[in-house]
Amino acid sequence: MASHHHDLVVVGTGSGNMVVDSTFADLDVAFVEEEQRFGGTCLNVGCIPTKMFAHTADLATQIRSAGSFDVHADLRDVSWPAVRDRVFGRLDPIARDSRRSRADTDGITVHTGTAVFTGPRELDVDGDRVTADRIVLAVGSRPVVPPPVAESGLPYETSNTVMHLDAPPSRLVVLGGGYIAAELAHVFASVGTDVTIVESADTLLGGQDEQVAHAFTELAAKQHTVHLGRRLTELRGRPGELEIVLDDGTRIGADTLLVATGRTPNGDRLDPAEGGVELDDGGRIVVDAHQRTSAEGVWALGDCSTSVPLKHVANREADVVRHNLRHPDDLRTARHDVVPAAVFTAPQIAAVGATEAELRDRGAEYTRSSVDYADTAFGWALEDPVGFCTLYADPTSGLLLGAHILGPDAPVLIQPLVVAMTLGIPAKDLVDQPYWIHPALTEVVQQALLGL
Q: Model pTM greater than 0.85?
C-alpha cells in the first residue's frame, strides 16, 4: 500500500474541480476521481450533453411545425449517430484535457480510484492510503433504480447511458415524470421514437407550479402515451423485447426502458462514519452554512450535500468553499433562498421562488398575475398558443415571491425576475424603472409585472 499526504484533497472533479485555482499554488493539492476524465455528471452525462441533444430536438420539431408559418419544409432525417458523435466529440476531449491539465500541473496529484474513509481525514483510494490536512467532498449523485428493475436481470438505461446508444429506440418507456424524464422524452420523440411515460404522481413535473404542471402534462399527453398515478411492479421479457407491468395490470411493450425516477447522493459510498462525516435521513452529507461537515477539516459541496441539487448551486458552493479554505477568518455562505431552475423540454419551463401551493400551505398573503405569450406582440410572431408567465408577489411590499414561465426562452426570460428577487427589487420598480424592449418576448414578463 502506497501512502500519500497532501495539504488539500478534493474528492470528485465536477464542481469540485472549481475549488482549486491559482491561489492554491503554494499547497500540495490532490484530486481523487473514479473516472479517467474530469467534469462530473454535468459535463459528461448530464446538463450539457442533454441540452445539446435538446437543442437538436428543438430544431427537428421546428422543421416539422414550419407549415404553421407558411414555410413548406420536410424533415428528411435526424442522424442519431452523427448527433451523438458531435455532442460527445466536443465534450469528451474537454473532460480528458481537464484531467491532463491538472495532472501536468506542479503541486497537483491526481489519484484514480474510489475513495472511502478509513479514519479522520484519511482515505483509502483503491488500496492507496491518502491523508490530508483538509478534504473537500464533491462526489455528486447517482440515478435511483427501483428494485423491480434492478432485480430483473434485464437491461435498462439511465441518463448516464441512454445518450450513448448506437441508435434511437423504436419504442421507449420512460419511468419517471421529472425534468430528466421530460427532457429525454422530448429528445427521443424528436427523432421518431414512440415514447411512453410512466409516472407515479398525478401530473408530470410535480414539483412545478400547479399551472405549469397541469399545462405541461396536457401537452405531453398529446405527444406521448402517458400513464399517471402508476408504478412499475415488474420488468420481464428479454433484451430488445421488454414488457413493463404496471400496478393496475397494464402491460407495455418496449425495446428500451429509461429509468428517470430521480437521483440519490453519493455520500454513503464514502464510508462517511469512518471519517466522522454525518449524513442526514436523505443520505446527504450534513454541512453548515459555510459548507463544513461534522468532521473537522472536511468540507462538502454539490449534489452530495445540498438540498438543491443543481449545477449552478454546486458551482456557487464551490466558490464559497474556495474562499473559506483560503480565508478561515472571513467565512462566506451560499444563499439557497432564490435559486432558479429550468427544464429544457418542449415547451421550455423556468421557475424561481414559491409555487402557489407552497404559498397556500404556509398561509401567505399574495397577489397573482398571469399573462399568456399570445397576448404579446412577439407571442403573435411565434404563433404560440400555450406559453405564459405567472408571478406571485407580497401585496404589502410588492416583492416577488415566485415566478413561473412556460414557453419559448423561459430560462432566459426569468433572469430579470431572479435578479429582482435576489436584490429585493419590488415588482413596481422593476417594471417602471428600466425600459422594456418592444416588441421583444420580454414583454410577457413586463405585462405580468404590471398585473401585480
A: yes
Q: Where are the beta strands (DSSP E) in 247-366?
A: 251-254, 256-259, 263-265, 298-300, 341-343, 349-353
Q: What is the pLDDT of residues 97-134, one digit of tens each?
A: 999 999 999 999 999 999 999 999 999 999 999 999 99
Gyration radius from the chain CA atoms: 24
Instruction: Say how far apart CA 254 and CA 244 lie, in whole Å.
Output: 8
Q: Give residues with Cβ within 8 angstroms of 193, minimum separation 6.
A: 168, 169, 170, 171, 172
Q: Which residues pair with 347 in a beta bridge?
A: none
| Other residues' Cβ atoms within 10 Å of the Cβ of residue 413 | 24
Residue pair 191/60 in contact by the 8 Å Cβ criterion: yes
- Three-state secondary-structure class, residue 428: helix
- CA nearest 345: which of 255, 441, 200, 215? 215
Cα separations in angstroms, 158 against 264, 269, 386: 13, 19, 30
Q: How far apart are CA 299 and CA 306, in angstroms?
A: 12
| Total Cβ atoms within 10 A of residue 264 | 17
Can you tell me the distance from the alpha carbon of 171 to that of 246, in angstroms, rounded to the nearest whole number? 17
Residues linked to residue 279 through DSSP beta bridges, in sequence order: 285
Residue-wise pLDDT for 178-193, tens only, equals: 999 999 999 999 999 9
224 is catalytic: no
* Catalytic residue selected from 164, 327, 336, 438: 438
Cα–Cα distances (Å) from 78 to 72, 163, 168, 188, in that order, read 18, 14, 10, 11
Going from the C-alpha of 295 to that of each of 300, 401, 434, the distances in angstroms are: 10, 36, 48
Kindly report the backbone phi and psi dihedral angles of residue 258, in degrees, each rounded to the nearest multiple of 5, phi listed first. Answer: -105, 120
Distances from the Cα of 282 to the Cα of 266, 268, 278, 446, angstroms: 11, 10, 11, 40
CA distances from 292 to 277, 323, 360 (A): 10, 13, 34
CA atoms of 113 and 194, how far apart (whole Å): 39
Residue 1 banded pLDDT, cuts 50, 70, 90: confident
Residue owning grid cell 441540452 = 51
